[in-house]
Structures are given as C-alpha cells and as structure tokens.
Specification:
The protein has 308 residues and is of the alpha/beta class. It folds into two domains: 146 residues, no CATH class; 151 residues. It contains 14 helices and seven strands. It has a seven-stranded mixed sheet. Helix 1 packs parallel to helix 10. The two termini are 26 Å apart.
C-alpha cells in the first residue's frame, strides 16, 4: 500500500517537470530567486534538485496539483492545511489542478510561506535523501488512510492511477468534477475520464451526435499472489459488461506481475480472456520503465494526447 503511494508522489513531481513545454531554466531561476542558496547547495550535495523540497511559483503555476505533494511533505493533513490555517483558498490547486485568477497574485506568497517551512525541515534532517522525503509524505498519508473505513487497497490503487493521470494531463488544464476529469485533446475534442465504479477507470470521447467508448481499465492493486486469480475473475466480469457497453480496449492493471512467467501469463489470460492488455501498477507509474513508457504511448495514441 505504502509503496504505491510512494511511487505516485515521486512520479507526480517528475511528470510535471518532464512535461513538454516545461522550461527547466525558468524553474532554476525561480529556485535561485526564492530559496536561500545554502539549502539548494545542500540538496545538490545529496544529489537532489531544489524542487524536491521547495515549491516555487513557476512549478505550482504549471502543475497546481503538486501543492498536495508539498502539503504531505510538510506533515499537514488536508483538514489541518485547508480548514485550520490560512490556506483554505488554495484548496482548488490540489483538488482541481487550477489556479483561480483571483489567486494569481498570491501564489508567490503561498510559496514563500511553504519555503520557510521547508528550510526548518531541512535544518532538522541530516542527511537528506529522496527516500527520506518519500517517507515523510507517507507518515502524513498513513493516518489519513487509516482514518477512513472505506479506504482499501483497491481504492488506493485507483487513486494512484487517478493522480498519475492528473499529472500527465496537467498541460491540458483538465477540468475536475466529482469523479470525472475532462480535457480537450490534440484534435480539439473533449475526452472524459471517469474514476471509480465499474469499470474502475474509463475514457470516452464526445462526438456529435454520440459518445465513443475508448478504454476501460480494471485495477486490482492487491499484491497477494494467492488471491490474484479471484481478482482477475472479478476483472473479467467487469470487462464483459464494458465490452457490451461498447468498449474495445479492455485493460487490467494488477499489483502482481502476471507476466513474470509464461505459465502465469497463460493462467491470467484464462481467468480474464476479455482483457486486451495486462499492466503491472508499480511499472506504469514509473516513467523510466519500459512498461510505463508503453502505457503512456498506447493510452496517449488512443485518447489523442501527449502523455510524456
């Protein structure tokens, strides 16, 4: 459970910086302008870039979702950060991935406040490493997860995919409403992504006068190998319904590596013959992996968007 969240937190920042059109030189200038040099040097000596710990205006303006990354790093639950402090007006950054025009002039003030918190954090941690940053975020996240009776491994896995997609689609300024995410693709057509329910994630394209069903994804995030066959059976039922509804691309994402051997792969196909592609969750959130690259290329080609 924690490993999935850790991969997302790391991947979310990475995806933002690697997005086409993101100017690394501007980010470096912003870091130099707002962050004391001694802290940037200290991070550099540990092989880390400044944005790993310090939020700056250029970064949040390009991917407002990342406010959640820094909130977790500094130890704030959503309630403490948005309901018990001065940051309530910034909640839309993390939830909708947008900076309302009324807040354009106050992003620098937000970053300045968080940068002060970051310097205090670095003053108390020695040595600093990427794993340390991830562990601090997980420490904040853990109680949030335990506090909800409805949270389970499956929902966490869906949330990981949801947050990954938000990061990859940030340059399209997606509109988030409830469990749905809508953006205009490179062909000028609206694509809607729905999270949760049956299937876990679905993509559809709005055409006149119809809706084209693009991809249905079932996510089985459990890592218990002994139970994977039952979970694939559940995925198969969902995919059959999705196929009947008009979906032709039917993907299953698992926490277990069903491609680790020819025999396991054969059994996976037997349990869910309707699945057109299998992916391992830990790999698709890792942009450096071959499977992560394939996932982005395939999905991007289907929905008409560049996913890095």
């Amino acid at each position: 459970m924690q490993s999935l969240r850790r991969l997302y937190l790391r991947e979310g920042l990475k995806a933002a910086v690697e997005n086409e059109g993101f100017d690394l030189a501007k980010l470096d200038l912003d870091l130099s302008k707002h962050v004391p040099a001694k802290y940037l040097k200290r991070l550099a000596s540990s092989g880390l870039r400044g944005e790993v710990v310090f939020p700056v205006p250029y970064l949040l303006e390009n991917n407002p979702f990342l406010l959640g990354y820094y909130r977790l790093l500094f130890g704030f639950s959503q309630k403490a950060f948005y309901e018990q402090g001065p940051f309530a007006k910034y909640k839309s950054l993390e939830e909708k991935g947008k900076v309302p025009p009324v807040l354009n002039d106050s992003i620098e003030a937000l970053c300045s406040s968080l940068i002060q918190t970051a310097t205090i954090l670095l003053d108390t941690i020695d040595p600093i490493a990427l794993d340390t940053v991830n562990d601090l975020q997980i420490l904040t996240l853990g109680p949030q997860l335990r506090a909800s009776r409805n949270v389970n491994v499956g929902q966490i896995a869906v949330d990981v995919i949801s947050n990954l997609l938000k990061g990859l689609l940030a340059k399209y300024s997606p509109d988030l409403k409830g469990r749905g995410l809508t953006f205009i693709n490179d062909s000028g057509l609206p694509v809607t992504i729905h999270f949760g329910g049956d299937p876990d994630v679905s993509f559809s394209l709005k055409l006149l006068p119809e809706v084209r069903k693009l991809v249905a994804i079932e996510i089985k995030g459990g890592t218990d190998v002994s139970n994977i066959w039952n979970r694939l059976g559940e995925a198969e039922k969902s995919h059959r319904s999705a196929k009947a509804a008009g979906f032709n691309e039917l993907w299953t994402v698992t926490g277990v590596d069903v491609g680790s051997s020819r025999e396991i792969r054969r059994m996976a196909v037997e349990k869910s013959p309707t699945t057109t592609r299998f992916f391992k969750l830990a790999r698709i959130v890792d942009s450096a992996s071959e499977e992560g690259t394939l996932f982005r290329q395939l999905l991007g080609s289907i929905i008409g968007a560049q996913l890095g």
